[in-house]
Amino acid sequence: MRALAAYTEAIRLFPAAVAYKARATALLQREDVASAIADCTEAIRLDPDYFPAYVTRAAAFFLSGDLERAIADNTEAIRLEPTYALAYRNRGREYGQQGKYDLAIADYSEAIRLAPRIADPYSDRGWAYAQKGEYDKALADLTEAIRLDPKLGVAYANRAYVYRKLGDEARAAADDQMNRKLGQAQRKASWMSILLFWLIVIACGSGLAYFLVVMAEKR
Length: 219
Fold this sequence. Notes:
Blueprint: H1 2-13, H2 17-29, H3 33-46, H4 51-64, H5 67-80, H6 85-97, H7 101-114, H8 120-131, H9 135-148, H10 153-165, H11 169-204, H12 206-218
Helix pairs in contact: 1-2, 1-12, 2-3, 2-4, 2-12, 3-4, 4-5, 4-6, 5-6, 6-7, 6-8, 7-8, 8-9, 8-10, 9-10, 10-11, 11-12
């Protein structure tokens, strides 16, 4: 709550697109989808070429179940910045939710081409291949995702699904166990991150915490 108050004060002092987008991200973390959409819309009004606001609004539309608007916003972000891998990855996820797996795979492949060291698009593409019954391709992608990020729990969960489809219960069970272990570790890490944020707020004031978040948004 205090973080949102800091963003609101920053907007009052300097109502820039990046500040509205930063607050929208915080609102999404609180599952306040409608307010996040409103903030992103204001960011876009202030700066129609600020492509991260389209991507964040697309995420909000996705959470609201409005896949068509989510796809439209990520498509606009791609038009504004054709090398932004996250927009391709997120649009692929939206196509996947619609069952358009070939379109999803094309977008995940472009995200991989643009950011080959990021694990998530490999995991997502592996899941899309699995939905098409192309288990060998799925297994290759999910294994690569795990190589790139051994702590990516969803990749283990998806690979367990593929191993079961291939009749390898022993490897599926091992991946399920790893996914559970990572879930426990991530919950602990999340609490540590929250604690660190509030220590910064208490020690230095919410303004500094806001400044650090906005600097991260600009990277």
